[in-house]
Design brief:
Chain lengths: ~200, ~400
């Protein structure tokens, strides 16, 4: 079964075909059902029901009803006349997300970045460290210039921004190669399954 | 006359054996092992761990005089805790020799605790006298993060200032973003070819800012699609994202004056599973052969599969994500890519909404301050005048 489905998905590399369509439909159907059950048991039962109706001796935690009510409001979309209620939980999620991430981003993307980039531009007796530090400081500075949206990128300023995008592209190139190698290991894993576990050609 | 001469020889012999046995079993070990008993730790002080969320007490003590000097036989300190000074003390943790502090994270708030420190050698131990009672409690403010508060306040005030400015009608300049300029071209192409436009809002839920930004861009794309009378499809992998997309697209069609063209069926749910979703969307691309594909939001390993499939059917592709590991694939396989923060800036650029424009300007102010800090900090660091990086360290 595993080999049949693996080959079915791989057959997409040749072209779309009924075998792939079957595997795709099976994958989508099973995964949708699986996720419904997972969410039901891990969210509705574990987070809401078990906290409102806990086991003997445990206190009821009514604060979880807030989430339950917001969830119910989402379901009100099924009633067109009061469907607008579903915008409230949506607004709650989006607003809460923005607020929660503000501090995290300010710390990790802001302060940590600055702290890691403040480096001595020359290290006596260590040419490698000196060159490395200069590349880091100049690269980060030029990258920030590229992501500065309040000024048109032309003239000298535009050239600095262009240098910034060069640094980004070099980073992307390295990241591309690294990730391709990781994907190759996934492919090798599947091939090992087909030729080893299934066909027994690899011992 | 000696005392032993009065006693029979057998009696003397028996008692001598008893004496030797008594010495070996009790006095000799006591003599030997008492030399191994370390001196007790001194000055035990316990206090509520500062700037925390409670349930933590820090215990400090003075080292045993046999730790590192004297008999030098201390191998470990044990931290003992009780709820009364004379009560039963139980072990809550241990600390290696040479240390003088332990943080007890198993405390309960509002309960007075007494601590003793036990110095252990290989064969013996000694306890310090108990310290004074201490109670743990949470604090409102974490002093170690004062610098973070200042950064967030400066950023927030900058954003509020620019929002106020934008609200008063002050024109805010935002540089051109090539990928967004290409939206009209992509939708126009789909209209001319009579083919669909696909918008993929990533594989994350609404608790990702990238998804929120993607939904904002969807609003602009949907408006153009409605104006050009093209066809739009938005497959989703999260129910909440689907609802947000439906609301946004519906509003966009309404703004374009074509509410009749809108249908809920344009935006649908597939599955929450990452590769189930990818398999389904890839199949859709190949069968429908869309003219334009927008890949905007939070992507992971499926990014290259989707972008390559879209490329293979000849669609014009505009991608955007802030995932550094996925950007290379989009750059390689798509016609235009919104890189990192461009994804967030695009929402402001497209909507011209004063709040979004103001926040974009506020963020630019933050970046300007960062650039100044980096250059100034690096120069001062090089000259050895000031270690500015320390100021940006937080706990």
């Amino acid at each position: 079964m595993g080999a049949f489905l693996t080959l079915g998905i791989i057959s997409f590399l040749y072209k779309d075909n009924p075998w792939y369509k079957f595997c795709e439909a099976l994958f989508v159907g099973i995964s949708a059902g699986y996720w419904f059950c997972t969410v039901f048991w891990s969210q509705f039962v574990a987070k809401l029901w078990d906290n409102i109706y806990p086991t003997a001796g445990q206190p009821r935690q009514y604060v979880y009803l807030v989430g339950g009510i917001l969830g119910l409001m989402m379901l009100l979309r099924l009633v067109p006349k009061i469907g607008w209620f579903s915008r409230w939980p949506l607004a709650f999620v989006v607003g809460g997300t923005a607020g929660a991430y503000l501090i995290g981003y300010a710390l990790s993307n802001g302060m940590k970045q600055v702290k890691s980039t403040i480096l001595p531009l020359w290290v006596s007796g260590n040419l490698n460290a000196t060159v490395g530090n200069i590349i880091l400081v100049v690269g980060t500075f030029c990258g920030l210039i590229y992501f500065f949206f309040s000024k048109e990128q032309k003239g000298t300023y535009g050239k600095v921004a262009k240098l910034g995008i060069f640094f980004l592209m070099i980073t992307f190139g390295a990241s591309f190669g690294y990730t391709v190698m990781a994907r190759m290991s996934l492919l090798i894993g599947r091939m090992d399954f087909l030729f080893g576990t299934w066909l027994g050609l690899i011992k | 006359m000696p005392f032993c001469q009065k006693l029979p020889g057998r009696y003397i012999q028996t008692n001598f054996v008893w004496f030797i046995s008594f010495f070996i079993l009790s006095i000799f070990p006591a003599l030997v092992f008492s030399r191994d008993t370390p001196q007790p730790p001194t000055q035990v002080q316990a206090f509520d761990t500062p700037s925390d969320a409670g349930k933590s007490i820090t215990v400090q003590w003075g080292k045993s005089s046999d730790d590192g000097e004297g008999l030098n036989n201390v191998v470990l300190y044990e931290v003992l805790r009780s709820t009364s000074p004379e009560g039963e003390y139980t072990k809550v943790g241990d600390s290696p020799r040479g240390t003088t502090e332990y943080v007890d994270n198993s405390a309960k708030d509002k309960i007075p605790y007494y601590y003793k420190i036990r110095a252990l050698s290989k064969t013996s131990f000694s306890d310090s006298p108990p310290g004074a009672a201490v109670v743990s409690s949470p604090q409102w403010f974490k002093k170690e993060r004062l610098n973070a508060l200042i950064v967030v306040l400066v950023l927030s005030l900058g954003i509020i200032y620019f929002i106020q400015k934008a609200s008063k009608g002050k024109e805010m300049f935002v540089r051109k973003i090539a990928a967004i300029e290409a939206v009209d071209e992509a939708v126009g192409r789909a209209t001319e070819m009579g083919k669909k436009v696909y918008f993929i809002p990533g594989i994350y839920d609404m608790d990702s800012m990238q998804t929120v930004a993607a939904v904002t861009i969807l609003g602009h794309v949907a408006k153009r699609v409605a104006e050009y009378e093209a066809k739009l499809e938005v497959p989703n992998c999260y129910a909440l994202v689907m609802v947000a997309c439906r609301e946004t697209v519906k509003q966009a069609y309404l703004n374009a004056g074509r509410p009749d063209s809108y249908s809920d069926d344009m935006i649908y749910y597939i599955t929450q599973d990452q590769f189930g979703y990818t398999a389904a969307v890839s199949g859709l691309f190949v069968r429908e052969k869309p003219a334009a594909i927008f890949l905007q939001g939070h992507f992971f390993a499926e990014s290259l599969v989707l972008a390559e499939t879209g490329n293979s059917v000849g669609a014009i592709q505009i991608a955007g994500t802030a995932q550094p590991t996925q950007l290379p694939f989009f750059v390689a396989a798509c016609d235009y890519t919104l890189i990192g923060e461009e994804l967030f800036a695009a929402s402001a650029y497209l909507s011209k909404n004063p709040k979004l424009l103001g926040s974009l300007k506020g963020q630019d102010l933050g970046k300007l301050l960062m650039m100044i800090a980096i250059i100034l900090g690096s120069i001062l660091e090089s000259l050895g005048i000031l270690h500015l990086a320390k100021w940006f360290t937080y706990q």
